[in-house]
Design goal:
The structure holds four protein chains of four kinds.
Chain B (H helix, E strand, L loop, with lengths): L1 H7 L7 H15 L1 H11 L1 H18 L1 H4 L20 E6 L2 E16 L4 E25 L3 E10 L18 H37 L1 H16 L2 H11 L6 H32 L2 H8 L4 H12 L1 H24 L11 H8 L2 H6 L5 H24 L5
Chain C lengths: L8 H23 L13 H5 L17 H8 L6 H4 L5 E3 L11 E7 L4 H7 L6 E3 L6 E3 L4 E4 L5 E5 L14 H12 L21 E6 L2 E5 L7 H6 L11 H4 L11 H7 L5 H9 L9 H4 L9 E5 L6 E6 L5 E3 L10 E7 L2 H9 L5 E2 L6 H9 L1 H4 L1 E7 L2 E8 L6 H8 L1 H10 L2 H8 L21 H4 L7 H10 L20 E6 L5 H14 L3 E6 L2 H9 L5 E7 L22 H8 L15 H14 L4 H18 L2 E3 L6 E6 L2 E2 L4 E3 L16 E2 L3
Parallel strand pairs in C: 1-11, 2-12, 14-22, 16-17, 16-18
Antiparallel strand pairs in C: 3-4, 5-6, 6-8, 7-8, 9-10, 10-12, 13-20, 14-20, 15-18, 15-19, 21-23
Helix pairs in contact in C: 16-19, 23-24
Chain D lengths: L4 E14 L2 E14 L3 E5 L6 H9 L6 E12 L25 E4 L8 H6 L4 E4 L13 H12 L4 H14 L5 H4 L9 H13 L5 E5 L7 H18 L2 E6 L2 H7 L2 E6 L2 E7 H6 L4 H8 L52 E4 L2 E3 L8
Parallel strand pairs in D: 3-8, 3-9, 6-7, 7-8
Antiparallel strand pairs in D: 1-2, 1-4, 4-5, 9-10, 10-12, 11-12
Helix pairs in contact in D: 3-4, 3-6, 4-6, 6-7
Classes of the chains: A mainly alpha, B alpha+beta, C alpha+beta, D alpha/beta.
Chain lengths: 328, 387, 681, 356
């Protein structure tokens, strides 16, 4: 097991290097750089910038250098000093920016994950056990509905409804009075009161696919003869269901669980923008749109690393859960 | 005597066990597609989904004829005009008479709020006809026509069955035109994914070993790159001096760039399990070339599965297109897609004062739902365990 | 001998008026007649304070300051008001009346680099400022300025006793330090001095004659210097406190610089200085917003810096150096809170919900006005008007096109006239502005009586396809292809691409224009692109037709971009611009190209404006430039701008109902937000 | 000679309700299983033998269900009441006990408590595919002790002990170690032994074996069958063996039921069935077995003419009619032959014997 782990970790090194290069290349793909983007967006607002200021910034950001030099400098900073560079747009170290937003992002992601699982598992199981029943059709329909609605549209409409009919303060995760307040029970309650909207919106799409996966997996398993064996032993239906097919149907699930966190961080980006949530998603999108190089690249790195680690975690979990894999 | 007896036995007779096998095999082989069809028919939602999908694609084909006008026609006096209800019968002295019409608008300008206020004018009647002559268009770029399924009989008085957008463009026409782009993006993207997925997944699964390892690592790598940045990077990198049509293809390629990895995994899995099956072995031993083996023997054996997977990935592509549009990286006018329309409606002004502009969202919803149900039904039908 | 010159007379008049009011106020204080007498302002404030009891609370703490500050003074946390205010504080005439202290101004920023709204609201502490009416410049952060006749030497007189927000004195040495040690330091300012500070060959010389006198000497006349100081560019002067920033400067701190670098995780001292004090105006790289420790002259100082949370918060600067006409220290409002939002639609909802007190940015589009108007009662807010003058849209045909054939066609004035007549401006106005505004050429707007030219205003603006076809015939375009599009003068098919971006609805206008040109028989094609790309293509001179604003206004002297190849924003002739600004072409995206004589003559005239200190002379020269521009017809204009708008809550006072709208102004800063006030709940 | 009746099936009908129509998988079946005896059910694939077996335990797959008939279970004394908490499996079982309690299994709720208590305890079952019939992710020990713990009060240790004992009984070497292994680590034969051990864990009165040897090779098949016989001697349970292999029947059976298309064609003791088959179908089946001692060149295997009809289009009258050499037009296609008792527990469903 330990050897397996070590080997996997070894494999990760070239992957990470490749990812860092790709991350850097992705942000170089669009034409222009941070400065030209900034000048253009300033001009769009009727604002302008002095040529000397532009040159000063170019120097400050090191944008005049060749791309590979920029890349090597960036990597050097990361490896030697753990320094991911500065965000141009925020004038701050990237790490500081990310950390300041990660806590709430994780709260949101975990809440969404929890929501998705709590909703999807029972429905998925029900849907499989009662295949082609009214309930199955209904669950399927609701699930697909969540899948089919563009999230950003749903977010906007929910927000408008919250404003129009509930007179609620919109956007963000806190009411104005708690925005910058220190943590207290009141603030936690306020957070929870705001959290459900994004959680539901982010959850809908995930729930749908999870229901489908659960249902499909379980249907496969339910038809396996070992279920009949168990039934012939006199096991009660529900116990049988959970001990055998559900447990096995979870395997494909577990194999993707490692991907969930990075997906929730980046997947919620569009919704977070619409809802103006202080999470990492909007930071990422904005960094990409502004070509805020180091912020975007570090971000992509972070997400990719999370994916790679997540995959590893999944594989370990899977090996732990499924003896067939463990024995290989 | 026994010998002659034996010789007179009918040639088709075999042992009961063999007969069993034959019966089973003839049932399953002869009508695999038929069995699928039976199975599929059982799934009512899938049937409905299939029919709706069909209708949507038919609309996509006959866009020019079906839409009352072309999506780019700007009319100054009809900015943000609300939908007009279509009446089929008109009240006359002799009772109700078949004569489709809509009521016109009374328009006032509100300079402070900077808008036109529209009131449906019961007095004013705009005649609506079927198969009317209207704007000329080129059907499929082949011949010119000016026949429209439905439209105003008076060129001066346009009708807005689904209302107008901020520049007085007809939403219904825009949506119909958008159908072609959005639905074909899904289809095209899926075929690209399909091609890549089959090719690479097939190679990976068929040869195994180093090749497999290499391709698997590559897939893992691509999947570990976050989707949105990848899309954004690629979409922003499209040279924008490309004509709209080429941009459209570019975006399709980008969207399918990620989709193929999932398909490749499925295909690989199938290949791996099929590789050891007797009939493939037999084909190989027979000296069939590997490509022939793949295409003639292996692909057909899981084709139904692939079709189901494909159907299920079309909605993802449609949604991806709308997401890209949301980020202002997708298609742009003069190309009209549902994503473009949604992006234009993605603001409070539309939600608050022109909710009809959200109808394209409904179109996305219906299309995605239909395709999902269809795919779901196909998958259930193709499922070998599910006989 | 030396003559005060504030470029426009009304401004000077106002300044005189202000001084008079101060004097009256001081007199009144001495006489003890006014109830809220600003006693401390008099030189002998300390001694006089005890006598004029009305302005004091019982314990001798002045009531001409916010209650919270009174409390701090009482507790000994803060020096008395008299010690915090300059001897002669700047006096602000409130728009509607004296206000009350207290309250929070809730407003918002979108994204992480939205410093422009900060610049427009809280940081208008430039040495010079526009009058609220935008008809002249007056001293602002300095008490007075004296310009030499040839506009090459300027003497700034500083207020005695004016202080930074940490209580350190603000003196001429601060500006001298900033110029000599920051701007002229090649490590800190690799880009050199700002363009508008350049006159002649040598860099300007800053000399602190004494604490309160700064002499700036240019190598050549710099006639627009004071005006530039009033624009956002001018904010760089008064933001670097020497006593704070010198500790990060290698030339000034030889003791613990390394420790500071390490402590702040900086790479070197330059990086450290940039983090703490650097200022690239108008860019996100502006330590004013990110370094809460940086002392400031602003009415509010940063309490929660930009990017530290989901809000940016500024709190009252207890050392602010302006008072109202009754001697009450400004600002009235305690705090300014900027919600940092990610999306404009959320901002709009907050506006509708009455969560924004006063704002005129991001949400205030034409399309949104209807829904905002609908919610006025529920949201308890009203509109105020921002008068943008000038043209809504300019179609910039590329006169220096890379392709010789295109260049020839575009350069034919008849062709451009034809294009202008093809435009149905009224339809554009009806669709996009709901009938607000009138057809207008890219000319001087009516509001600027000095330069207004009636004929030019409506030149070639009537929609007349037949006339257009005549002009096309004059340009040699008579034949059409099978699609009905005119062929080029050489008989070959001719088409061009109109590029526009989605910002501010330019794409809608471009779409309409393209439709109209097509209807007119000209094969125009629409290309809607990302604005970065739009700019890149423009900068690289790779565009056919660029759609952008064509507005102009009182800033015409500072930015005559539509009237001759002035800056990179003069999109119609990028190569000529390079020839003017960067003749060697080093590092330029477009290589320079010598313009025709008439254009060179315009450039020459502008150089003369710069070297003149006389407003009358400047006006005459400008008229000459404009006359040539009218004849050259560089940019095709569309329509006059309908007014923009902002919203202000009903309990938010002293906001003018109408004000100029412009970045150069920069709306609404010159209306003095420090005198805005909020009435009770 | 006859031991007491254990299971009595009367007019059992189990139908599958599909969209395409109703499949009458079991359509009026009667037979009896006696204590300690082996009953073999033979027939071609799809004749309803498996469904009959599953019907006994009420584990027919959806959408199938028992629509008519009775399955009377004469519960032996030792099993009546709470269970077999203190009882260890005795080599001789509780032979000879008279049945006091009669339960109609067909009337029980398939998901109910009563039938669950009978499953695995009174009646247990082994299946054709030992690989897929065992959960791949649970250990052998886990799966064996599951039923023990479910039906008895044994503690974990005791259950493990018992499981080891059972594994030893079914001939698995080093049984204690095997508890911790997973099914995929065992060979096919071993797996089937595990299945048997599992089925016998609660000392059932009836073991239903649904083609237990189809998926294993010939030698293993013989071993398994031998094992079953041994265990029957030891445990004293009745065995209902479902097979299509007449050789197995000859070797194992005490009684035989021949099924065709959801109905019983003929039943009786093994001797009489083999030596004096009455039903044309039985006769045809027997002809299709290769006979030892007859020269190969002389012999060709007989086969039954035609094919099993489509389950949706069942023939009218006698199900075997269309394939029968003795088909009597006008009668066989009109009358569904009733059971005709031939004495000695023999019964045949064929109009040929109507007069007798």
């Amino acid at each position: 097991m330990l050897q397996f782990l070590l080997r996997r970790l070894m494999f990760m090194i070239p992957t990470l290097i490749a990812i860092s290069i790709v991350a850097f290349v992705i942000i170089q793909l669009p034409p222009g750089d941070f400065l030209t983007t900034m000048v253009a967006s300033m001009a769009a607002q009727g604002e302008d910038m002095d040529q000397s200021a532009m040159r000063a910034l170019e120097e400050q950001y090191g944008l005049g250098q060749p791309v590979h030099i920029q890349y090597l400098k960036w990597m050097q900073g990361i490896i030697l000093r753990g320094d991911f560079g500065d965000s141009f747009g925020w004038n701050k170290p990237v790490a500081e920016l990310l950390w300041s937003r990660l806590a709430l992002t994780f709260v949101l992601s975990l809440a969404s994950l929890l929501f998705v699982w709590v909703v999807a598992f029972p429905i998925g199981i029900y849907s499989a056990v009662k295949q082609y029943s009214i309930g199955d059709y209904f669950a399927t329909f609701i699930g697909f509905l969540g899948l089919a609605t563009p999230n950003f549209l749903l977010a906007l409409i929910l927000m408008y409804i919250a404003f129009k009919f509930f007179n609620q303060s919109v956007g963000g995760l806190f009411s104005p009075e708690y925005q910058e307040a220190p943590w207290s029970w009141g603030r936690v309650a306020d957070l929870l009161a705001h959290l459900w909207v994004p959680v539901v919106i982010i959850g809908t799409a995930g729930t749908a696919s999870l229901i489908r996966v659960m249902r499909a997996n379980l249907l496969d398993e339910l038809r396996k003869p070992y279920v009949v064996t168990a039934r012939a032993k006199g096991l009660p239906e529900w116990r049988l269901l959970f001990k055998y097919p559900v447990r096995i149907a979870l395997n494909p699930f577990v194999s993707t669980v490692g991907w969930v966190l990075p997906t929730l961080v980046s997947g919620a980006a569009i919704v977070s923008i619409v809802l103006s949530l202080p999470t990492t998603g909007p930071l990422l999108i904005r960094a990409l749109l502004q070509q805020d190089m180091y912020l975007a690249a570090s971000f992509i790195m972070l997400l990719s690393i999370l994916t790679v680690i997540g995959t590893l975690v999944s594989d370990l979990l899977l090996a732990w859960l499924d003896p067939r894999i463990r024995m290989e | 005597m026994a010998v002659t007896d034996a010789k007179t036995l009918p040639p088709e007779t075999v042992s009961p066990r063999a007969a069993d096998a034959e019966i089973e095999s003839s049932v399953s082989v002869a009508s695999q597609w038929q069995l699928m069809w039976w199975k599929f028919r059982k799934h009512r939602a899938a049937m409905v989904g299939g029919v709706v999908t069909l209708i949507i694609y038919v609309i996509a084909i006959f866009v020019e004829f079906l839409s009352p006008s072309s999506p780019g026609v700007i009319r100054a006096d009809y900015t943000w005009a609300p939908p007009q209800q279509l009446h089929f019968f008109r009240q006359t002295e002799n009772g109700m008479r078949w004569d489709p019409y809509v009521n016109g608008y009374k328009v006032e300008i509100d300079p402070e709020a900077l808008r036109r206020t529209f009131v449906i004018d019961e007095e004013q009647i705009v005649d609506v006809g079927f198969f009317v002559r209207g704007e000329t268009y080129e059907m499929w770029g082949l011949w010119e026509s000016d026949l429209h399924l439905i439209g105003s009989t008076d060129a001066e008085l346009p009708v807005y069955f689904l209302g107008a957008d901020r520049m007085g463009r007809d939403l219904l026409s825009s949506m119909i035109y958008g159908t072609r782009v959005s639905m074909s993006i899904g289809l095209l993207g899926v075929f690209l994914s399909f091609f890549l997925g089959i090719l690479l997944g097939g190679i990976s699964g068929f040869y195994g070993g180093t090749v497999d390892n290499l391709i698997q690592r590559a897939i893992e790598f691509i999947r570990s790159i976050p989707t949105i940045p990848l899309w954004m990077g690629l979409a922003a990198a499209l040279p924008t001096d490309w004509p709209p049509l080429r941009i459209y293809f570019g975006i399709t390629i980008i969207i399918s760039f990620i989709g193929w990895t999932g398909l490749a995994r499925v295909v690989r899995g199938r290949f791996l399990s099929l590789r050891t099956e007797d009939f493939v072995m037999a084909a190989r031993l027979d000296g069939a070339s590997e490509l022939t083996t793949i295409w003639r023997h292996m692909v057909p054996s899981f084709f139904s599965h692939i079709i189901a997977s494909l159907t299920l990935s079309i909605p993802g592509m449609i949604l991806a297109e709308t997401s890209l549009s949301f980020l202002e990286l997708g298609l742009r006018r003069p190309v009209v897609s549902w994503g473009v329309l949604l992006q234009e409606a993605q603001n409070i002004r539309s939600v608050a004062t022109a909710s009809w502009l959200l109808i394209p969202g409904l179109a996305v919803l219906v299309a995605v739902l239909a395709l999902n149900f269809l795919g779901d039904g196909l998958r259930d039908a193709a499922d070998p365990y599910n006989r | 001998m030396q003559k005060r010159n504030w470029t426009l007379n009304p401004g000077r008049l106002l300044a005189v008026l202000l001084i008079a009011i101060v004097a009256v106020g001081a007199l009144a204080a001495c006489g003890g007649a006014e109830p809220a007498a600003p006693a401390e302002e008099a030189p002998a404030a300390e001694s006089a304070a005890d006598d004029s009891g009305e302005a004091m609370a019982d314990d001798g703490v002045s009531s001409n300051q916010a209650p919270a500050l009174q409390e701090m003074v009482r507790n000994g946390d803060l020096p008395p008001l008299a010690e915090r205010l300059p001897v002669n504080p700047a006096v602000v005439v409130p728009v509607d009346g004296i206000g009350q202290y207290g309250g929070t101004w809730n407003t918002a920023l979108v994204g992480g680099s939205d410093t422009a709204w900060l610049v427009r609201t809280v940081s208008y502490i430039h040495p010079m400022g526009w009058t609220p009416q935008w008809d002249g410049v007056v001293p602002n952060a300095v008490e007075d300025v004296i310009a030499s006749d040839d506009a090459s030497e300027y003497t700034f007189i500083f207020r005695e006793g004016q202080k930074w927000s940490d209580g350190a004195p603000f003196t001429a040495h601060d500006l001298a330090f900033w110029w000599n040690d920051q701007i002229l330091n090649p490590d800190l300012s690799p880009g050199g001095t700002p363009g508008w500070m350049r006159a002649g060959e040598a860099d300007a010389i800053f000399e602190a004659v004494d604490d309160h006198t700064l002499k700036i000497t240019f190598d050549a006349p710099n006639g627009l210097f004071l005006q530039n100081l009033a624009t956002p560019s001018g904010s760089i002067f008064t933001r670097v406190p020497m006593h704070y920033c010198s500790q990060f400067h290698a030339d000034h701190n030889t003791e613990n610089l390394d420790a500071l670098i390490a402590e702040n995780n900086a790479n070197d001292w330059v990086h450290l200085y940039q983090m703490k004090c650097s200022s690239v105006p108008g860019t996100p790289s502006d330590s004013r917003w990110f370094n809460g420790d940086l002392p400031t002259l602003m009415p509010w100082r940063v309490a929660v810096a930009y990017g530290e949370g989901s809000q940016m918060i500024l709190e009252r600067n207890p050392y602010y150096w302006k008072v109202d006409t009754e001697g009450n220290q400004l600002p009235y409002i305690d705090r300014v809170v900027y919600d940092i939002l990610e999306d404009r639609e959320v901002l709009l909802l907050k506006v509708l919900n009455g969560e924004v007190d006063m704002m005129s940015r991001h949400f205030n589009t034409n399309d949104n006005k209807a829904v905002i108007a609908d919610n006025r009662e529920a949201g308890e807010y009203e509109f105020f008007e921002t008068r943008s003058i000038g043209n809504t849209t300019g179609f910039h045909f590329n006169l220096t096109h890379k392709d010789a054939r295109m260049r020839e066609i575009f350069n034919d004035k008849n062709f451009r006239i034809a294009m202008s007549h093809c435009l149905n401006r009224q339809e554009i106005i009806d669709v996009l502005y709901i009938g607000q505004g009138e057809p207008m050429q890219s000319a001087i707007p009516k509001d600027m009586a000095e330069f207004y030219d009636e004929e030019w205003y409506s030149l070639y603006t009537e929609f007349d396809q037949a006339l257009a076809h005549q002009y096309l015939a004059d340009a040699g375009m008579t034949e059409r292809d099978e699609d009905g599009y005119f062929l080029g003068p050489d008989g070959e098919p001719f088409s061009f691409v109109v590029q526009a971006t989605e910002a501010f609805g330019f794409h809608d206008r471009a779409e309409m224009a393209v439709n109209q040109w097509q209807a007119c028989g000209v094969n125009a094609q629409l290309s809607i692109v990302d604005r970065t790309l739009l700019y890149q293509r423009k900068d690289a001179n790779e565009h056919d037709v660029h759609v952008w604003g064509a507005g102009t206004g009182p800033q015409i002297f500072l930015d005559p971009r539509h009237f001759f190849p002035f800056s990179a924003e003069s999109t119609f002739a990028q190569t000529w611009v390079t020839w003017r600004t960067n003749p060697s072409g080093a590092g330029a995206m477009t290589q320079p190209e010598e313009p025709p004589d008439i254009v060179k003559h315009q450039m020459d005239l502008y150089a003369q404006i710069l070297s003149s200190g006389d407003q009358a002379v400047q006006n005459e020269l400008m008229k000459e430039i404009l006359a040539i521009a009218k004849d050259q017809f560089y940019v095709i204009g569309t329509s006059s701008s309908p007014p923009g708008y902002g919203i202000v809550k009903n309990n938010f006072h002293n906001v003018p109902t109408s004000m100029p709208g412009s970045w150069q102004y920069p709306t609404p800063a010159p209306t003095q937000p420090e005198q805005y006030w909020i009435s009770g709940e | 000679m006859d031991t007491p009746v254990l299971i009595e099936i009367k007019n059992l009908k189990t139908h599958f309700f599909l969209d395409e129509g109703t499949v009458q998988a079991v359509n009026g079946v009667d037979f009896t299983i006696h204590q300690h005896k082996t009953l073999c059910v033979v027939g071609e694939s799809g004749c309803g033998k498996s469904v009959t077996a599953r019907s006994i335990l009420q584990i027919v797959d959806q959408p199938g269900r028992i629509v008519e008939g009775e399955i009377l279970y004469h519960r032996p004394d030792r099993l009546s009441g709470v269970g077999l908490s203190e009882e260890l499996p005795s080599p001789n079982g509780a032979g000879g006990s008279s049945s006091t309690e009669i339960i109609d299994l067909a009337a029980l709720d398939p998901r109910g408590r009563q039938i669950r208590e009978i499953r695995g305890q009174d009646i247990s079952m082994i299946f054709q595919e030992p690989m897929t019939s065992l959960s791949p992710i649970h250990t052998v020990g886990n799966q064996i002790t599951e039923a023990i713990k479910l039906h008895t009060d044994m503690l974990d240790d005791e259950a493990d002990e018992h499981a080891i004992e059972l594994l030893r009984r079914v001939g698995i070497p080093r049984p204690a170690e095997r508890l911790e292994t997973y099914p995929f680590e065992l060979s096919g034969g071993m797996r089937q032994r595990v299945m048997i051990a599992m089925a016998l864990s609660c000392n059932p009165a009836l073991l239903i074996a649904d083609e237990p040897t189809t998926a294993v090779d010939v030698t293993t098949q013989a071993q398994i069958l031998e094992l079953l016989e041994e265990l029957q001697d030891d445990f004293g349970m009745a065995i209902m063996l479902i097979t299509h292999d007449l050789g197995v029947v000859a070797e194992m059976a005490d009684d035989v039921v021949v099924m065709y298309l959801g109905q019983v064609a003929e039943r009786g003791d093994v001797e009489s069935i083999f030596h004096d088959p009455k039903h044309p179908y039985t006769q045809a089946l027997l002809k299709s077995i290769p006979k030892l001692g007859v020269s190969r060149t002389m012999q060709r295997l007989d086969s039954i003419r035609g094919m099993v009809p489509d389950p949706y289009n069942r023939p009218t009258g006698c199900m075997f009619g269309p394939r029968c050499d003795h088909f009597m037009p006008g009668r066989c296609d009109a009358i569904n032959p009733p059971a005709i008792q031939l004495g000695d527990g023999r019964e045949v469903h064929c109009l040929l014997y109507e007069d007798e």
